[in-house]
Amino acid sequence: MTTLPLIVNALGQLDNPNAPRSAEAAAELNPSSEQLTIDARTLADAHASGLTAVNITLGYTMGDLPPYEHTLHEIDVWDGIIRDHAADLLKVRTVADVHRARREGRIGVIYGFQNAVAVGNDTSRVATFAERGVRVVQLTYNQANHIGDGSMAPENRGLTDFGRGLVEALDEHHLMVDLSHSGERTCLEAAKTARLPVSINHTGCRALADLPRNKTDEELRLVASRGGFVGIYFMPFLNPSGHASAADVVEHIVHAVNVCGEDHVGIGTDGTVTSIDDLDAYRAHLAEHVALRREAGVGAAGERDDTLPFVLDLRGVDQFRDLIRLLEQRGYRSGRIEKILGTNFLDYADRVWAPEASR
User: Fold this and answer.
1) What are the beta bridge partners of residue 178?
2) Which residue of 35, 85, 121, 353 is most buried, as measured by CB atoms within 10 A?
3) Beta carbons of 43 and 88 less than 8 angstroms apart
């Protein structure tokens, strides 16, 4: 495939992890968007990778910050980042915006949450978030919240009554219901409750690596059967050893396609395009960060001192090209690869966001 297809990362980040501010923030439990480094290298690497659009995480995920107020502030921060880099970045509200970004040589930025706690007990806040441009709302992080249980909640209790109401409100405002990090019952119940298709924007397949952050075939099949989307991440959870490789990413994509069908699978790397240059220095601080997550109760099974939160041989500006090459070696034709790299996410987005185009 000589020309790169449209590439949409269903969960990633724009940042230069080598910049001092970002390197310091990486050691913290809960860095803010203000600590990201959107510099010339960040933008040049994103362009060089072929990335068309990325769903970034903003707002409250964990910690002692006031969830609603912090989330509104984070939206302001990202609005400012995009305004300051208008020649390179475009805020995405509709599928048409993604196509516009590609046409104009910009990177589309999709606003998303990795925890819906910022809604509080007031589902009317969903309207506020929608109006501010949020397009993806993950219900839980790893732990339980008042909406449902995360993947590390041992009770696996499923959606709460409030959680069902929240899913209905997200449907009403045509926002993606993202079930990444959710517990199994929460995922299954949310997929059945939702009127619109739902997604699992960054996950792996439990059948290949039996870890809580990965999804069972039942979850994958249900989400796909209702018109949803599954993004495979580039994370250590793809291998029980914690040392995932590019080959593991391919195996999980292949399994997901076999379970879900080729129209419902994509990528959500959960990482940046810009590589960490000094891996030795990074490893020296990794144990401290993993310990912080463990102490705060937000870590996931499979996170260890020696597990890098990315795939070592599938990172940097060539990560998408390398993935295309590996999928071609597996016998995947260009049409299927194009779906996995971006058009499946956009087709799913169109099924959820479409009414927003009339605003």
Assistant:
1) 138, 199
2) 353
3) yes
Residue-wise pLDDT tens for the chain (359 aa)?
668 999 999 999 999 999 999 988 887 878 899 999 999 999 999 999 999 999 999 999 999 999 999 999 999 999 999 999 999 999 999 999 999 999 999 999 999 999 999 999 999 999 999 999 999 999 999 999 999 999 999 999 999 999 999 999 999 999 999 999 999 999 999 999 999 999 999 999 999 999 999 999 999 999 999 999 999 999 999 999 999 999 999 999 999 999 999 999 999 999 999 999 999 888 887 777 777 788 778 778 777 778 889 999 999 999 999 999 999 999 999 999 999 999 999 999 999 998 643 33
SS (H, E, C) 236-249: HHHCCCCCCCHHHH
- Alpha-helix residue ranges (DSSP H) falling in the chain: 20-26, 40-49, 67-84, 95-104, 125-131, 161-172, 184-193, 217-225, 246-260, 279-296, 319-329, 334-338, 344-353
Tracing tokens 């984070």 back to the chain, one arrives at: 74
Longest Cα pair distance anywhere in the chain, in angstroms? Answer: 51
C-alpha 301/C-alpha 284 separation (Å) is: 21
Give the whole-angstrom CA distance, residue 150 versus residue 14. 25
Q: Report the alpha-carbon distance of residue 296 to residue 122 in Å, rounded.
A: 26
- How far from 157 is each of 106, 116, 141, CA to CA, in Å? 42, 17, 15
Please state whether beta strands 176-178 and 229-232 pair in parallel, antiparallel, or not at all (unpaired): unpaired
* 3-class state of residue 343 by DSSP: helix
d(CA 294, CA 180): 19
Residue 236, token pair as written in the block:
């250590």
In angstroms, the CA 314 to CA 99 distance is: 26
Helices (H) then strands (E): counts for the chain: 13, 10
Sign of CA dihedral 339, 245, 211, 148: negative
Residue with structure tokens 């996950």? 203
